[in-house]
Amino acid sequence: MDSLRDLVYRGFETRDVDYKAPCAWRGNDDRRASCELVRDVLALANSGGGQLVIGVDEPESGRFEQTGVPEADAVTWDSTDFNRYVNQYADPPVNSEVFRFEHDGRLFMIIRVPDFPRTPHLCIRQYPGVLEDPCLYVRTAQNSTERIRSSADFREIIDRAVRRNQDYLLESFRAILTGSQSAETNVSRYDADLALSRSRCQENFPEKYRLRREKLGRGYEAFWVTYAYPGSYVEERFSPSQGKRMCQAASITYRGWPFIFVSKDATETRQVDDGVESVIVFPDFNRNDTYDFWRLFLDGFFYHTVLFREHALEQRVVWMFELILHPAEALDAIMRLYDQFVGPNEPITVAMELHDMQGRILSDATKYDDLARDGHTCASRTITYKKTRTLADWKAGIADHVAEIYTHICERFNFEASSEYAKAQVDKLFSRRLNLGG
Length: 438
Prior knowledge:
13 helices; Methyltransferase, Cobalt-precorrin-4 Transmethylase, Domain 2; alpha+beta
């Protein structure tokens, strides 16, 4: 508390402290002001991290008054909402923390910005007169935010990135070269998490979907289930609020809906005693009923279930494209999540399950009749893939791992799939060159 009081009342700015006048967070309602804050966040993150203090006026240059933020403005500030806005412009994402501080009857909002973990944060979108792209922003020796211009600033940021990456790269190479370590010694500790996740997923399944299933006599039983856990067991690796922020940082959108969606609505994504839980029910862009459930436990166990997209066809089909894109999005998000709280040589077990597959026909949408005639039909009710690799290994070859998952699933449909085709689609997805409309 004393450190926060000193931060607010020190009366001068530094390279890691930036004062801002009282204001509300308006996001898209005031894009210019919001983008000015984005620029300040990127600069602090690229300069060792620091704090933005909202509620300090500067009536004249160099003289600061701690006026505070009105409660009506304070309630508009939210870490999830703020980070989601900032990360539209940042690559890699910045995981800031927004919280309130009260002293002597005055209220201040503190935005705590972390130093970049390994890679500087690049501005990837422009806003006229405020943000340029691509651009690196830094805090200067004069305590101002500027795009990087001098060779000295450039050398400093490169030196810091190199220092931060040296240890990580050494650990990553060691983990890849020595191979995967078994996480099965701790698997029994995660059994309770898996059982609870499955139970909670069933409890939250919409009653209206159950009724439709009973009426139609089919549907609403096909699910993608993905779960993952670290090799070592730590009962409490982080707090629920930290877990929620990490999920937000791991959430990347490639096709309009991220694998880990963190809702601003507390009735949908909520902190619970043992972690974070999210339940989303909605019709997708093609008016397919969708159910999206995920849970992150404090010990690092992650569980995700999504209802299969059931298109308006009498035939029970599985789209080949989805067998590539869903695992790609899942592995990308899960590794972004674990990268925030485990080391590169930590074994990570990932399991994927496809439920209600028996009798379904594999289709690529353009050759449905050919595939159906050739007998590419699944005989198994559930298809399961499970593998343990180090975090570094997963991250180093996501496209290869997706190709392995894809060919594994296609084998259950008596179809010889192309690994190279799968890897090419993953590369297009991640570089946002994939044609999702055709």
